[in-house]
Amino acid sequence: MPRHGADGRLLGMTKLRHSPVSLFALVFLAATSGRAQDWAKARLDASPRHHEYVTLKHQGRSVQAFVVYPEVREKAPTVVMIHEIFGLSDWAKEMADELAGQGFIVIAPDLLSGFGPNGGGSSEFPNQDAAVKAVSGLDPAGVVADLDAAADWAKQVPAGNGKIAVAGFCWGGGKSFAFATHRKDLSAAFVFYGSGPSDVSGITAPVYGFYAGNDARIGATVPDTTAAMKAAGKLFEPVTYDGAGHGFMRAGEDPSNANPANKTAREEGFARLVKLLHEMKQASTSSLSDPAAADGERSARTKACHEITADSGS
Fold first, then answer.
1. Phi (first) and psi of residue 238, to 5 degrees
2. Which has the closest alpha carbon to 39: 95, 80, 79?
3. What is the pTM of this model?
4. Which end of the chain is more exposed for a tag (fewer CB within 10 A), N or C?
5. Angle, helices 38-45/90-100, rounded to nearest 10 degrees
6. Of the candidates 43, 50, 86, 47, which has an alpha carbon nearest to the alpha carbon of residue 66?
7. Are the beta carbons of 68 and 97 closer than 8 angstroms?
């Protein structure tokens, strides 16, 4: 059966293994997974990195965004991070901080800004169910506009090198994929257990997928997305982590996690994300000195990806 290598690169679509999950369990997990994140807040509070909030203004709207800067000497790429369906939670901010610790500026917009009680954002909702309902009801065009504002900020931040990527989780994973169809100056898009858009023709950046083996709802969409990306001539490298469940990037570091596969997937997924971001940074440096070489490398990678996908039997 095709696998991915130790570095996380696709060697072929991994066969999904599904475990039956009751409707009750799904509802329970959705209602509870965003709560009790004191462990994430504690880690965030202990971080040595600089955190701040910036206000992104566009079309008469103000969006609060959480920003973390790496402790580096040189200018760094910026990652626009899209939160889960639970809103900009403590875990989302802790994830942004951890990624910044690897050498990247991270901006995580609170897409619930202004939609909470008293005009607040994610933290103002009375409970997790209310936040989930609010995120589910966000206008897709409004989300794209908010993400555009974050990407515009990323292009101009003085500490940044002008290169931007987008990464999203759960609901945010789907939005990351969708944003790649819209935003033409992305260097990469990272999709964590999110479904693909119906039309991928507008995508210009490579897209990297991170999926859970025990997540039939999303896993069932991956073969069609793979086929659509191949037909459109786009680079798409999905990896599926056997035994892991939806939301493994959060669950895998939660001290209460009872599934070892979540922890393994979380560690391997994060290592893959960081590796790809560093490759993106190095490719950006190469393109400045030799654009033709960079184009050739990108074309070769796209061809290799398509050959791998074709041989996978997916």
1. -95, 145
2. 95
3. 0.81
4. N
5. 40
6. 50
7. yes
Task: Please state the domain extents for the chain.
Answer: 48-311
Torsion angles phi and psi, residue 198, rounded to 5: -70, -30
CATH assignment of 48-311?
Answer: 3.40.50.1820
Q: What is the residue whose two structure tokens read 């809103």?
A: 87
Give the mean model confidence (pLDDT) for residues 82-105.
98
Label residues 183-193 b or e (16+ Cβ within 10 Å = b): beebbbbbbbb
Task: Please report, as a single letter, which amino acid is at residue 26.
Answer: L
CA dist 112 and 109 (Å) reads: 9
- How confident is the model over 185-224, as pLDDT tens digits? 999 999 999 999 999 999 999 999 999 999 999 999 999 9
Nearest to 94 by CA among 39, 147, 135: 39
Residue 41 token pair = 């807040």
- The token duo for 8 is 């996380």
Alpha-carbon span 10 to 208, nearest angstrom: 10
- Round to whole Å and give the CA distance between 271 and 273: 5
SS3 242: strand
The H or E element spanning position 10 is: none
